[in-house]
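Consortium newsletter contribution from the modelling node. Members have asked for a concrete example of what our holo predictions look like. Here is one, prepared for the NAP complex that several groups have been discussing at recent meetings.
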Amino acid sequence: MECHLVFYMFSKSTGKRLQMCVKMYVNVCDRMQSDLQSVLTKRTYRMIGEVIFLRVRLVVVTDIRGIIARNENDPVNWSSAEDKRFFKQITTESGLVLMGRRTYESIGRNLSGRINVVMSRQKEINLPYRPNYLVSGTPQEIVSFLRDKGYTDMCVIGGQSVFTEFLKAGSLTDLYITIEPMIMAGNLNLFGEMSNDLHLKLERVLKLNDVGTINVHYRILQ
Ligand SMILES: NC(=O)c1ccc[n+]([C@@H]2O[C@H](COP(=O)([O-])OP(=O)(O)OC[C@H]3O[C@@H](n4cnc5c(N)ncnc54)[C@H](OP(=O)(O)O)[C@@H]3O)[C@@H](O)[C@H]2O)c1
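And here is the predicted structure:
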């Protein structure tokens, strides 16, 4: 988990407050966060004013082979109603969805009740609707930009190129993968090629319906 420590120090001569932000990667689970915060605040560094925890969740639906679409232009019109409900619930709880331009176009509208952030290298995208933010850069730069705007929980919702960039950059904290009981006639995988192994910890498995659509929640071990 990425953790931003904000230090407040006071200049001896002027008494003015100086602020420093240090980024750390900490592997903690939710219930430990408040403990860690109080330990850091009270004991280790007396000058720490604030600890900000970031959650960057990948949210996706796949078939049993890990296929996310038949091809790059194919919309996600094959997932179950229960997954759609789950997706809406988790992304609304988070409040912010981040996606690639192709996924945004395939959805064909903004996702209501959520901040819509779209990644594109183009200055403008020619669509009848506009996202809240059109961004470009590395995953670290984009997460940092959104954190500075005050967002500490975000859902990366696709597609393959964006999922792969965020995973490779080490910017994800959690994976929520819905697996539909089907084998799709397609070839777009959840992730592109990886150069390193990555270890995960299973947090929860939910059965979403009677045909056996399941959602698995993994935490990424750093
Ligand atoms: N099953 C699921 O849950 C799921 C979820 C989402 C998407 N999908 C499917 O995935 C497919 C689309 O995936 P995709 O990999 O082809 O496209 P994508 O990741 O949705 O979008 C790729 C585009 O994002 C922009 N982009 C990517 N990295 C960027 C960066 N670092 N900085 C700035 N812009 C960046 C570029 O836009 P520009 O070309 O404008 O520069 C790039 O062409 C669709 O078929 C969709 O239905 C499935």
